Every structure is written in C-alpha cells, then in structure tokens.
Amino acid sequence: MNAMLWLKAAHVLSAAIIFGTGLGIAFFTWFGYRSAMRDGSLEALRSTLRLTVVADAWLTVPAVVFQMVSGLLLMDAHGWPLVSAWSIAVWSLFAVAGACWLPVLLIQGELARESREAASIAALEQDFHHMFRWWFALGTVAFAAVIAIYWLMVAKPLSLAG
Predict the structure, then answer these.
(1) What is the pLDDT, as a whole number, of residue 162?
(2) What angle do CA 40, 41, 45 make, to 5 degrees?
(3) Which domain holds residue 150?
(4) Which residues contact 73 (CB under 8 A, 6 or more apart)?
C-alpha cells in the first residue's frame, strides 16, 4: 500500500474518531447529567464528566490536530488550491467547529471540577447548570459544522471544487 493510501485512510479514520467521540461524549454526558439530576447521583455525574474530559484529551484532540495536518497534505498531493470556494468552506467550518469546541473543552473541565467540589447534586450552583447549557449549545454547533465538513468531503460539490 502506498503512502498516499495510508494518509487517506488515516485521514478518514481520524474524521471518524472526531465524529464518534463527539457523538459519544454528547450522548453519555447529556444522559449522565440528566440521570444525575433526576436520581441525585453526584458520583455518577463526577465519573461521567471525568471521562468526558479524558475522551476529548486522548481521542479528539490528537484527531483534530491530525485532521488539520493530513487535510493540508492531501490537498497539496491532489493539487487542490488552498484558496478556492470549496477549501474556504471546509476551513471555515473547521474554524467554526474549533471556535465552539475549544470553549467546550474549558467548560467540561470546569464542570468536572465543580462536580468534584460539590457535596451533593443540590449543592451545585446555578452557574453549573448554566455552563452545562452552554456546553450543549456550543457542542451542537461544533457537531453540525463537523457534519457539514463530512458532506463537503464526500460530495465535493462542483461549485465549490475550485
């Protein structure tokens, strides 16, 4: 197998990691939060938030960095212009996803810290719940941007191809 095929496969795999961890983190954090609020299980919330931070640090962050580098390498290898409607759309969506996701990382860390310091679910401040709503909203926008990037990668609409 040649180097280009390996790079393409790794690029697709890292995109799947970003998509999968994004969806997985959103799923288990949302339901972990809702369950903890309903059942009063602070330990379950702590565990969920800790694993959310770990999953993003170990899986999503390296995949995002690899996506950026491998995307540039693949565009260069295929002779696709870095400045075209298609590439501007892709990189703009990548920037939107990142602009939403970076605060999400900070919010996750803060939510995890606050859950560790709380004596009970009832002791969590209103600010905790407000931050959780921001986490969800920003994560939704970032995830929508990732889905739009997938569409651009697969469809490569002619009007955007260069």
Answers:
(1) 52
(2) 120
(3) 3-160
(4) 7
Q: What is the mean pLDDT of the segment spanning 83-94? A: 92
What does the block give as tokens for 73? Answer: 């390498």
Distance CA 55, CA 22 (A): 9
> Which tokens hold the place of 29?
């954090």
The rounded distance, in Å, linking the Cα atoms of 104 and 64 is 14
Q: Are 15 and 67 in contact (CB under 8 A)?
A: yes
- Burial pattern 87-104, b for ≥16 Cβ within 10 A else e, equals bebbbebbebbeebbebb
**The two structure tokens encoding residue 101:** 């996701």
In angstroms, what CA-CA distances link 101 with 18, 61, 120, 160? Answer: 11, 10, 28, 25
pTM of the model: 0.90
What is the tens place of the pLDDT at every residue in 35-82?
999 999 999 999 999 999 999 999 999 999 999 999 999 999 988 888
Number of compact structural domains in the chain: 1
CATH number of the domain to which 87 belongs: 1.20.120
- The residue-averaged pLDDT of 82-93 equals 91
CA atoms 102, 107, 112, 114: torsion sign:
positive
